[in-house]
Amino acid sequence: MEKTVNHKAWFLVLPVLVLVAFSAVIPLMTVVNYSVQDSFGNNQFFWVGIEWFQEILTSERIHNALGRQLMFSAIILAIEIPLGVFIALNMPKRGIWASVCLVLMALPLLIPWNVVGTIWQVFGRVDIGLLGHTLAAMGIDYNYTQDAFDAWVTVIVMDVWHWTSLVALLAYAGLQSIPEAYYQAAKIDQASRWAVFRYIELPKMQGVLLIAILLRFMDSFMIYTEPFVVTGGGPGNATTFLSIDLVKMALGQFDLGPAAAFSIMYFLVILLISWVFYTVMTNLDKREGA
Amino acid sequence: MAKITLSHLAHSYLPHPASEDDFALKEMNHVWEDGAAYALLGPSGCGKTTLLNIISGLLHPSQGSILFGDTDVTEAPTTARNIAQVFQFPVVYDTMTVRDNLAFPLKNRGAEPAYIASRVAQIAEMIGMEDQLGRRARGLTADAKQKISLGRGMVREDVNAILFDEPLTVIDPHMKWALRTQLKSLHREFGHTMIYVTHDQTEALTFADKVVVMYDGRVVQIGTPEELFEAPGHTFVGYFIGSPGMNVLDANIEGDRAYINGAEIPLSRGYGELGGRVQIGVRPEFVSLTADRDGLPVNVRRIEDVGRHRIVRADFFGTDISIIAGEETPVSADMNRVTFRPDKIGVYVDDWRVTGGAA
Amino acid sequence: MTLQLDGVTKLVNGQVHIHETDLTLEKGTMNVLLGPTLSGKTSLMRLMAGLDRPAAGRVLWQGDDVTGVPVQRRGVAMVYQQFINYPAMTVYDNIASPMRLLGKTKAEIDAAVHKAADLMKLTPMLQRKPLELSGGQQQRCALARALVKDAGLVLLDEPLANLDYKLREELRVEIPKIFEESGAIFVYATTEPEEALLLGGSTATLWEGRITQFGPTPEVYRNPQDATTARVFSDPPMNFLRISKAGPKLLFGDGQSCPATGRLGELDDGRYLAGFRPNHLELDQHVPDALEFNCNLAVTEITGSETFVHLDHHGERWVGVIHGVRDLTIGDPLTVHLDPAHVYIFADDGALVAPAAYAQAA
Question: Where in the cell is it found (chain B) (predicted)?
């Protein structure tokens, strides 16, 4: 059913347009502006074309950072998604314990990023940290400031601790939306536990899991604060992910031009992947609604 | 397949029911025949879903027992009861094909692949989905999905009973009678014991051999559609079945005569001394409006022309009554009297029908 | 007070939803829009209300052109198929809400709310929230709100469709009563012929975006001007049979005929379409000259006081409505009878050429 057409309504959108222009479009254009120019200070700029983009695309340093970044995102997705689903499947469905679980699960999500970093930074220290000290006492050679592998493990465990709840909560919401009749039908059909998961729970969670994967991918791909607080990107460049590298480049070295080009490509990569996800999801919806 | 016995069965959702009012399902004893189609009919809150859940094993009754054949299954879980159930909303396995959906209950029980294939083909033909067997269930219409659910309920030949919980709720009105008809022919073909829960009289009366009318946690009548129409066992049945419902009038009964405000109404049977609230019930179809002096006086208030007949609303000694007059039966202003067909008048004491002796 | 549609049409994405329509509704009348789903009932109501603007034509209210005037500035009340109430307000506040917007005094509001609640049997529930009520009570609350608004035009779009049949039965009787008291123009959309007949007043039958006939309800029912109207205003739909007229006789195929009496005698020889209502098929022969058809019983349906028989007559699907509950065996041959006085004769293009004799007599 269509409505009466009244174009005056567009004026109501105007404030939002102005706001978006100031908060997103204008800063973005500044970055675009920087990415095609060079400066030697004194606010003097000159045109360099796509030189910075070429430099970034061929830079080994950026390639390595990108490789680490992809590796990091892949690992945390591979751990957090199945783990989150597993937790959701084992949470109580109703009653007081369901609420208690929900609150407990939500707790890590409420802690600010840099606090999470700090917690784990202290927690893992060999001298005073509970974890580091215990591991050392058990004779395990663990030191995230010296050993690249240990640093990776720490950062990944920290992210899993911080964000698996999100996946679990989303999956839990998906599971809660399955009508009781499905489980009863499965009982009557004598379906195995695995079949219930494979043919009822997983298909019904599909939508929320895609959202979870999308959110966790984007977020992990842009991760900055926590590894910066814990490892500062080290040891060496072992945990220098894209955004850490970007900040180093922009603020550490004040290479504004390359940093701007870097930002734009970073942004485009995330946009591209999000778009792919979005398309896949809407196609699924269409099939569902057909 | 098996007959179903409900023995002293009752259920309360309260842990310590004190009075009868605390029971959602009042004590009942019934034996339902093997291979028959039953409909549980009643308004919402009458206890029909509670009863269905007890039969399916979802709910444990507060008292009494339930038997499939000679086996007491009161304590048995759903899986052990060997039943099939079709729910109010289509329950299909979205990612499976229509074929796999239909085969699922058989596969899980380790049936032979050749048998599964032939059985699935047979069911697919019955529900008219042979040409869609290879399609995924996701994306099908609600009608098609519900047909799959019906098919999956029907696919096993050895079930004790098939339960239907308002299965046509989501179906488009013009598709309803087609599915209802299909269900009926499926029943004729396979002879399963079927129990069908609904609040829709047309669905119940059309589908079932025997309709179980429930009201306020009680089974008020079990009967064929004809019996429910001709001889309602309870005033509620008279009201709920038929449109408009049965006229119920307070009366005194003396032998084979009923008296309302001193006016005499002949009955076809004789009755002894009756205690409690005595009423007579007669359907609007069996009341005629007449100018004849033999009739009893009524005050006609309005005449509703519904095309194939007219419904006359009248005041009869202070009580509203409905009279059905044929489309071409003349209704004139001097027709201010009514007659009742004696053989169609029922006598009710405290809402329950009493049978009289030969007059 | 009159509402006049003057040559209005409605297009959606280039497709015609309402063909050119002229319709005049008078003060204090009940007007039923009867037609199947998607026949244009809701589209027509939206045009009347001012929710949509017609593609062409004018809408006149008391003679004034109100075509472009938005719904807020017209005195219109509407009740929908879904039960629409304010969930956070009590029933009292729900009913009072349109009057509060009009700035009525407390005493006025109180009196009107109690009157409407009384009429709708909602008085004991005034302090409850809509969601604590049954479906029937919720819809009565919505009806009461439409009533107190004291609008000149009250539009009811299948208000009983979502209620179960016993409640529908009650409200169908109540609605015409309520309407008798108010002087508004009522427009009531329904898909059910029986509902139209119960409401009385006038009926406009709709088919594919066109009003096929408009007139007093029983008149449209008994004297449809064409086969489409007859089909729409019959539940189950009218049965049809091709026949031919030769001299003094109507030939019904399979050797049966009946004398062409009265106006039928004046018809030219040739092929016609005979139509008859399902309730006029009978199992027993009641008149000596009844036509007899040998059919196969495909399906039966029992509604409680009637039995619907779906018949196969040489490949044509017919439906018969038989009084009472009958136990018939599906698949068996079944002979049905039809009084020729119940037969309507239509021309090949669907126009009525001779009404059924019984309808003339009535």
Answer: Cell inner membrane
